[in-house]
Amino acid sequence: MTGLSRLSGCLAHPAKSMPAGRRPSPEAGIDDLVATIFLGWLQGGWLQRDRVGLWRRSPPFIRHVTLTTVTVTMVLLSSACGSSSGSTVLPDPKTSTPASLAGRPLSPTVAQPTTRLTDTNGSSFDVRSGTAGKLTFVFFGYTHCPDVCPTTVADIAAALSQQTPAVRARTALVFVTTDPDRDSPQTIRRWLDQFDVSFIGLTGSWADIAGYATALGLPTIHPEQAPDGTWTVDHVSRVTAFSPDGTARLGYLASATVANYSHDIPLLLENRM
């Protein structure tokens, strides 16, 4: 689908996020960029880049920007179709793609730390011992996220539905909230059950959550609540894949598709990293 045709679809359904597996890639064509930028302009805001390389929506007065300005700046911007709702995604570490796997190799590799967080039953959960012997995907996000969080979790759930029962039994997804003030254990459980009841949801103090992310080599920013009550929650879109031996050698970016995960899961269980 070209950017211009995607623009038509988004104008018809402005509240919908981009379908799973059809997010713009860094190699998106010029028409994709024009469509994305023009859509943001029509929706009453503009996307600007702040000092740490995040995408945010700026005040409404920018809506009067001319189409000439939009066209000139199109080469500088790229964004998913749909409202950001105060959500931003932090950049992922640089990686390169191997020929046999869709995931990107991590350098250096990461050992699963002995982090203890709180699961959706309100119990203490040791991430390393609780996922020992399984292929484990770890993803940081939040339940109010309008785009990358639900599509990522849905993609992994769809990929697992294509596997044999034996493969599914040896695979886990751990979702760690980056919005602990709003994401209670019960809220996380209800949200995850929309995708797969076996998925593990974790919360905890911000210090413990940030510490776990840091151990995985991922940056974090504490959520911010504006005076009007709205929230800005920043998180990394990377999914970290731990092999059954507890070592992460691969990561998946937001552009990963159901087919990518479905292809890689059996290979990862064979430790072909």
Written account of the structure:
The chain has 2 domains: 3-82, no CATH class; 104-269, Glutaredoxin (3-Layer(aba) Sandwich), CATH 3.40.30. Strand 8 (171-177), helix 7 (185-193) and strand 9 (200-203) form a beta-alpha-beta unit. 36% of the residues are buried. The chain is of the alpha+beta class. 31% of the residues lie in helices and 22% in strands.
Please render the helix and strand layout as text.
Layout: H1 3-12, H2 30-42, E1 47-49, E2 55-57, H3 67-73, E3 87-90, E4 104-111, E5 116-119, E6 124-126, H4 127-130, E7 135-141, H5 148-161, H6 165-169, E8 171-177, H7 185-193, E9 200-203, H8 206-215, E10 224-225, E11 231-236, E12 239-242, E13 247-252, H9 258-269
Parallel strand pairs: 3-11, 7-8, 8-9
Antiparallel strand pairs: 1-2, 4-13, 5-6, 5-9, 7-12, 10-11, 12-13
How are strands sequenced across the largest beta sheet?
4-13-12-7-8-9-5-6
- Average of pLDDT: 73
Under CATH, the homologous superfamily of the largest domain reads Glutaredoxin
Which residues form runs of ≥5 with pLDDT under 50?
1-98
Please state the oligomeric state of the protein chains shown: single chain
Please count the beta strands (DSSP E, at least 2 residues each).
13
Count structural domains: 2
Q: What's the Cα radius of gyration?
A: 19 Å
Shape: globular
Q: What structural category characterises the helix and strand content? A: alpha+beta
